[in-house]
# Entry
Amino acid sequence: MTSRSSSPTATSRSGPGVIRACVRGVDWLSAAVAVLAGVLLVAGVLAICHMVFVRYVLGQSTVWQTEFTTASITGAMLLGAPYVLATGGHVAVTALPDALGGLSRRMMQYLASLISLAFCLALAYASWHYFIETYSMGWTTGTVWNPPLWPMLLPLPVGISLLSLQYMAEILRPKHDDCGDQRGDG
# Structure
């Protein structure tokens, strides 16, 4: 007679494995989207170079470059934020947590992550609502170039949603990951 093992050790081994896989999946997604953020940043820089050439070398006016640059560099920032969080590249004032150390430090970081997650979830909800409204109503920028507004807004809900996922991953991340990540600053 065969039966599945339901011992506590079998359950505890599968639970953390699933969590670790989810955390790594979110980390991978953040890194993949960061590549897109890099492409947007380069596109914005190239548009600035084009704008300078057209305006100052050819003496012509520019139409699309300023708006495109603003959208692409802002999009790069929003889409790159989850990767920055995943790699610990964000700026943090750590004087108090470092002075406390130990459990107090971890509890403070956990609370800060929960508050940040709540803010990101609220912003993601509102930005998706705004994006859907913009797309469904066919809004444009109202400038001389006048492109549709939704492609310029898309990085906001996508980036903030991914940042929310990354905060969840940081909260759930094992504090001593076997892949060399021993930050412990979830």
